[in-house]
Design a protein that fits this description.
51% of the residues lie in helices and 15% in strands. The chain contains 13 helices and ten strands. The relative contact order is 0.12.
């Protein structure tokens, strides 16, 4: 990754941004100004330039920095903006969509993705929300169950199916819709990530034809493209949070004494922490390695990294909280419990484990040549 971008990240994601992240955890409200501040400091502009496809090394660098702020929710929220930019840059070919992407890069527009419906979950291809041609525009009708940042976003990227066709395979499309035209419900009460304000929404609204970002038939590809960007970012957020938890736990083990010695001197705890550290470091190296290759942005690799990191993250935070003892269970004295609670969302957001494993399974290649050469089966 170019050093100038890393230097920009170090300067841009400073104490002011961290203070906004800390404030969000206290108030339970996602700070729109955080996304705007990151944009104003040129991060999105430097990350995207004039590219229509993401620079993977920059995706990894940015997401690792966000994850290191100490709030998985805030990291995820800032990542949503970036994932929407990925959709707009890759699929937005009109002057309208290009201008919208530029406004997001400057921080003048904050985005959210409206894809998931209560009946469909990860099955975006069979959404019930529809678009129908209406004059020189489209009538969009439907509802969405989980829309992260809907309460503070200016524009939603809404996935719908083509309601003017009775094709057996629904043709999905994506539209950019001002949130002022959507009926946004009260935010859900979340188990964790309280400041990642997520609401249901309903809509029956008209939009001009230029608001179409991906035409019917391309909508699912557009949404999956944005989700893959989000999955890679989530893997980075998880790694950075795990590293913070392990560092905090190591300090605790060095300072806390039991039975005449520090906890770190007890082999069982020391080696358990070493095991966690080794596996987290391997995932970090994998992320950096993907960014260093020239294979480009690969959807299946993003899925594999996300599901692997998320499952490891649950284990790491559970073990760290265990090693902290009672203090780790006191929310007012340690962030470990909050990170443990928030980590679960990493296995659900942007696709559950099983959906991502299916993506990985498609890429598994059977080695029939080796099978014929090495196996000695008899009838």
């Amino acid at each position: 990754m170019p050093e100038p971008f890393d230097d920009l990240l170090a300067a841009a994601l400073d104490d002011d941004v961290r203070a906004l992240a800390d404030q969000a955890e206290t108030t339970g409200r996602f700070p729109k100004e955080l996304v705007q501040l990151i944009a104003e400091r040129g991060v999105y502009a430097a990350k995207w330039g004039s590219d229509t496809r993401p620079d993977v090394a920059k995706v990894v660098a940015f997401a690792l920095r966000l994850g290191a702020m100490g709030s998985l929710a805030v990291a995820a929220g800032a990542g949503v903006q970036d994932s929407c930019l990925a959709i707009l840059r890759r699929f937005g070919t009109t002057d309208f969509s290009k201008a919208l992407a530029d406004s997001g890069i400057r921080g003048e527009s904050v985005f959210c993705i409206a894809g998931t419906e209560s009946e469909g979950g990860s099955d975006l291809a069979h959404a019930e929300s529809t678009c129908r041609r209406d004059g020189d525009g489209y009538r969009l009708t439907g509802h969405k169950k989980f829309v992260t940042l809907a309460p503070i976003a200016d524009v939603a990227l809404v996935s719908v199916r083509d309601g003017d066709t009775s094709a057996a395979s629904p043709r999905a499309a994506v539209f950019a819709v001002p949130t002022s035209r959507l009926d946004i419900g009260e935010p859900h009460s979340l188990v964790g990530n309280a400041c990642l304000n997520t609401s249901p929404l309903r809509f029956d609204t008209w939009v001009p034809a230029e608001a179409m970002i991906a035409r019917p038939g391309l909508g699912l590809a557009a949404m999956n493209w944005g989700l893959a960007h989000e999955r890679l970012s989530i893997a980075c957020h998880v790694v950075a949070t795990c590293e913070a938890a392990i560092g905090l736990t190591a300090a605790r083990l060095h300072r806390r004494r039991q039975f005449g010695s520090t906890l770190f001197e007890h082999q069982a705890l020391r080696l358990r922490l070493a095991d966690l550290q080794a596996r987290v470091h391997v995932v970090r190296l994998a992320l950096l390695g993907v960014g260093a290759t020239d294979q480009g942005f690969d959807l299946r690799t993003a899925a594999a990294l996300k599901v692997s990191a998320a499952r490891l993250g649950e284990e790491v935070l559970s073990e760290c909280m265990h090693m902290f003892g009672g203090v780790g269970y006191l929310s007012e004295q340690s962030p470990i419990g909050r990170w443990w609670r928030d980590m679960k969302l990493a296995r659900v957001a942007a696709g559950v484990d099983e959906v991502l494993w299916e993506l990985v399974a498609v890429s598994i290649v059977a080695d029939d040549g080796a099978y014929d050469r090495l196996m000695a089966e008899k009838d």
